[in-house]
C-alpha cells in the first residue's frame, strides 16, 4: 500500500501521514512541503485544504531539493489521483 499525501496526492511518502489515532507522522512531503503533525496542529482538514490552495497558487512547485520528482512528474496528473 502506498503512503499518499492528502494535500498534493504524492504517493511516495515513507510513512502513512497519520496513524490509526490520527496522529501525524512528522514526515515532510517532498512534493508540497506539508509536515504531518505540525502544519495541521489546530485543524487537520482545514489545514490540508488551506495548504493545498496555497501550494496550487504558487504553481505546484516541487518542495524538496533532496528528493527530486521523476522526470515525467506532472502536478496536475498527480492531483487527479
From TrEMBL:
This is Cysteine-rich CPCC domain-containing protein. The lineage of its organism: Bacteria, Bacillati, Bacillota, Clostridia, Eubacteriales.
Amino acid at each position: 500500500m502506498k503512503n499518499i499525501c492528502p494535500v498534493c496526492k504524492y504517493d511516495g511518502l515513507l510513512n502513512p501521514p497519520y496513524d490509526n489515532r490520527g496522529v501525524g507522522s512528522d514526515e515532510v512531503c517532498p512534493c508540497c512541503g506539508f509536515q504531518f503533525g505540525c502544519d495541521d496542529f489546530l485543524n487537520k482538514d482545514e489545514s490540508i485544504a488551506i495548504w493545498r490552495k496555497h501550494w496550487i497558487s504558487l504553481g505546484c512547485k516541487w518542495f524538496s531539493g533532496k528528493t527530486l520528482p521523476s522526470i515525467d512528474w506532472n502536478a496536475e496528473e498527480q492531483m487527479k489521483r
